[in-house]
What does this fold into?
Amino acid sequence: MPTEPPKPLFSYRPYWAKRFGVAPFLPMSRGEMEALGWDSCDVVIVTGDAYVDHPSFGMALIGRLLEAQGFRVGVIAQPDWRSAEAFRALGRPNLFFGVTSGNMDSMVNRYTSDRKIRSDDAYTPNGEPGRRPDRAVVVYAQRCREAYPGASVVIGSIEASLRRLAHYDYWSDTVRRSALADARADLLIYGNAERAIVALAHRLAAGEAIGGIRDLRGTAFMVPRGWRPGSDWAEIDATAAGAPEPPIRRANPHDGNEAAPAIDPPAARRAIERSRAVLRLPSCERVKDDPALYAHASRVFHLESNPGNARALVQAHGDRDVWVNPPPIPLSTPEMDGVYGLPYRRAPHPAYTGAKIPAWEMIRFSVSILRGCFGGCAFCSITGHEGRVVQSRSEASILNEIEDIRDRTPGFTGVISDLGGPTANMYRMGCRDGRAGAACRRLSCVFPDICRRLDADHAPLIRLYREARAVAGVKRVLIGSGLRHDLAARSPEYVRELVTHHVGGYLKIAPEHTEPGPLAHMMKPGIGVYDAFKRLFDRFSKEAGKEQYLIPYFIAAHPGTTDEDMLALALWLKRNGFRPDQVQTFLPTPMTIAAAMYHTGRNPLKRIDGQSPRVETARAGRQRRRHKAFLRYHDPENWPLLREALRRMGRADLIGNGKRHLVPHFQPPGSGLRQTRRKTFPGGEK
It folds into this structure.
């Protein structure tokens, strides 16, 4: 794709409809459209979330951004998907339907890690469950097609991002094809969509056909097999690029017939201009049948994620190709400020009067200061969606939003609940060397060690905290987002500032495990880093005269974790006096590295070949419950399962009534019955 600097987000000539001005709320009904003087919408956003006009809600951010470009934008929130009627509420859009599942993946939103249906939905009025379908992006897109055949349909959000290629689907325990194929959408926009959605809207408004717009970064689309943007493009076999060692020699992964070609020499690969090269991944059909090819495709996908050097990807789905352009260029600080400075009402749409939307209640007094994360944790979908380049707002923009909360948000008591983002303490951090950063192919800037080129200075964040506390009317500023404690431990001054002023008694951090094996597969630092951070936390809490506690989070059943690892973690928890109430069992979200490990039993963090060691994976339901039980060793309901496991592991010495024992001999009456029943677990043990 072209490598020239992107067009600044707010430099486009506004569309003629800008004359209608700013809507109090983006309309959700024909009556609201008529009150604004509109006869139609240019863009209709269909979302699985309730409409809250706040920049933390994707439909509001994209809607207000398009409005600022002059377009008339309507919202259809949580429509009844059982027919196409609800999708006709605002009429046929002049440009396109923009389809999103909402802020969360609809499957993660609806199901627990044990595939049980959740009892509530935080993005729905009063937390009511069942207001969105499974795989909402696909269902909504199909209904848009039914409502208005021939209308352009664009899909996006984290759900579409993580399904832009063939992917392992935990809920069906199968490899599913790209969401593009099932949704029959014209275009998929992945990642943060601002650049692509603005450019797309202006080009469609200028008369371009959506089927001819093939050069936008951050987009994916389906094309005839073998399509190229131009004659100067070269195709590279992805089983050669990235070099699995020794070379994979099997039936051609593209069509299943010809013998695989020999790997082209590295010098020849380097001679191909990266901006005019496309990597052909093994086909959907091949990765579905061959775990080794799936794991290798996952590795290539993640290696091609840096906007500075990523190449286009293509993957056959039957007789058509899914083409994925390189990731979007991150927003500059002025562009971030512009996006977050749009005229949001910072409230739910009036249609929800009297109802509480739990997700809104949670973030109404918080401020997003950054996006993106360079941690690269194997189980996390943030980097697959928002990218590894941290994009930060200016201090002035953040302080203006704090003042806006103070002046306009009902119920504000003077407490800002969070200044954060995907990771609270990556504000203004990034590579010191721009050229090196653009060429880098590391999957993480902090694993296995913190990169020497990473500018991890906490001084800008310390300054921001101090300025936020000084805003008139602000009594307290808390930090609620997750903290990267390995970075924080390198800045005692930051930890002092945090502990002295911004912890409300408890601080949650996520070491995730204590043992080297699981941590290596998670791409997380060793438990010694947690110990170093805890020493600083305890020291500065004592100096501040405050009784404060760290609450560590851990994951059960992550790939690479054995029963022995979980036992060691349980003993660590007991020694340190932790009795977790809520624990997290690993959930394989589509296209993450850890999901590839779970599905294939192979490790995409290393080159894949016939000799690659298998990854220990807790897939069976009983083993997953056992790993979770180790985290809740103190719960009598888990004791029968743990006694059985300890005896099998030769550790019956840990069963007893003394302080050194993990579980007691006795069983309280009426407890432990739940663990004796065996339940069917799709794809695993009963």
